[in-house]
Structures are given as C-alpha cells and as structure tokens.
Amino acid sequence: MKFVPIGHDETVPALGQGTWFMGDVADGRADEIAALRRGVELGMKVIDTAEMYGSGASELLVGEAIAPIRDDVFLVSKVLPHNASQAGTIKACEQSLKRLKTDRIDLYLLHWRGPTDLEETIAAFEELKQAGKIRHWGVSNFDAEDMEELLDTPGGEEVVTNQVLYNLTRRGIEWDQLPQSEGDGLSIMAYSPIEQARLLAIAPLQNLAEDLDITPAQLALSWVLRNPTVIAIPKAGTLKHVEENARAAEIVLTQDVLNELDMIFPAPLEATSLEML
Description:
With 277 residues, this protein is α/β, with parallel strands linked by helices. It contains ten helices and ten strands. The two termini are 28 Å apart. The mean pLDDT is 97.
C-alpha cells in the first residue's frame, strides 16, 4: 500500500473507502459493515463519511462498523455549509461524534463552500482541535480560487487536504488544483474515482483492462493512484467489491498504458469550472 502525507507529520494509505449511499437500505447493512471491516484489514484504513449522507445514516453505519477496530481507522467526516458557523460547526461535529460512537474524528472537512465566512469556520475547526474532538481539518469541493482565499485567511495554513471529484472522465483539476496543492504541500482526496461505476461501462476502458488481465475498476483506480499526492476513496458495499478495489493498490501502470488512457480520456487543455456530484 502506498501512503500519502496528511498534515506535517502523518501519512495515510492512498486507497481508502467511501460511504456515500451506504446505510440507506437496511437489507444491505450487514454486507456493508463486513465490507468496511474487510477493507481495513486489507489496508484501506481511511473511511470517509459525512453528516449529509443519508442524513446521518452513513455515520451510524460507520460507527457500528468501526467500533471494534477504531484505532485502526483514519476517520473522515464533513460538516454541511449551512452548519458551518463557529457554533454550528461545533454542534454538528458533536452530533457526528455521537453517531460515529467515537471521541474523535481524524479529519473533519467543510463539505463545500457556503455563505459563512471562512475565518469563522476555521475558528471552529481550531477549537475542535484544541478540545481533541478532531485531529486535522480540511475542505471539500473547493476550486483553485477558493483554496487561494482559504490559504490567505488567518489560520487557513492549517488545512491539510481538499476532497474533490477526480477520475478518468473528470480531469479538470489537473490544470490548476493538482499543481497548486502539490506546491502548497497538500494532498487531494478523490471522491467517486470510478464515477459511481459509470466508468465501468466504457468499452475502450473495458478492452484495455481485459488486455492487462485486470478489471475496469482496478484500472481506473490504479490510474488515480498513480499520483503520489492523491488519496482515492471508492465505495464498496460487498466483500467481493472491496477485495477487487484493494488489489488496485498493487498495480503499477506502464507509460504505454498511461499514454493509451490519455488518448481515451484526454487531459484538460484549459482551466474549467470545478465539477461536483
């Protein structure tokens, strides 16, 4: 497993687990919990959730899944923009902690930019850090200009990551945000790295994966993981799926394969608006 720096003195596995839409259906709960635990066993120790996911249902599921293995997990959650005032952020975090059945969140993110002044949200994050309720903080769905403003805001230099949409079909961040983050010493967390499975139906990707004797999902994930500053957090609700994802961390793509993927999914030729799902 490759590792990516988080903050000044910590690294985390480059391949983690997302939980968007997990916990929504009771019939799948046992499978989803088993998948999350198996993923941690396989080294995918970053588990990402949010108060928004299922209006707390995902956090409840994650809390149950990690209860016996909490110290093995790097736990990520997020505060919604309409809760991101100083008092609102602290209250939201405390509610997330209750659902997650833990005393701390390892990385707490502002889910996307909202009307609250960044300075107020940062103050809340720093208060939560001082109280030991979170260990690091970051943001999600911030474009390059948002990140510049954040880093110019008092306290903004404590940000450790930006979680954004990034996959073979969503390469816009390569124009500005990836080089910006690398220059600032920040990691990128890539959500929906297989485009919520839509990538898997693209015939040229299927054909190339078959030639390499791997699955399209493994090819798409290994492509995201080629960058040393990117953490990918694919969702997997079954043991089979999570084990398939885990094997992607072992794949090293040759330059010829990377060139072929560039032909199928061209890199951006200009700045574009940040895409979101």
